[in-house]
């Protein structure tokens, strides 16, 4: 009888641990999407605009800006890869690879901006998250807070 209780207790504990692990993984995944997707979207938007300060006519105009563009593109790729998989994951990663290659090739601003904005749009389609406040901010309250 004691052996049966020990086996049951072990089985119960293992089952409970598995359930807790799944719950924590689910919460972590949700937090990952909630924090990573907006950040990645903002990086894509920044990259699309700021690339003009790094490259013109296929030549690097600012080495530090260009290095930043390379770093952002690599980070975007890593963040996309770390998100929970969706049917769009492979396409998003392919778009990210294309963006990285365009930056490496010092492509024209129009090409890089179009690719970054397209990837940003597709990211929000695959992982819908709010990108703006749900309600218009209360300007009177904001003024009171600022005055304080």
What keywords describe this structure?
single chain, globular, mainly alpha, 5 helices, 148 residues, two-stranded antiparallel sheet
Category by helix and strand content: mainly alpha
Give the strand content. under 5%
Number of strands: 2
Our Rg estimate from Cα atoms comes to: 23 Å
Order of helices and strands: HEEHHHH
Report on the biggest sheet.
2 strands, antiparallel
* Count of DSSP H/I helices: 5
Distance between the termini: 70 Å
What sort of overall outline do the alpha carbons produce when their principal axes are compared?
globular
**Poorly predicted segments:** 8-31
Mean pLDDT comes to 82
Instruction: State the helicity in percent bands.
Output: over 70%
Strand order of the largest sheet: 1-2
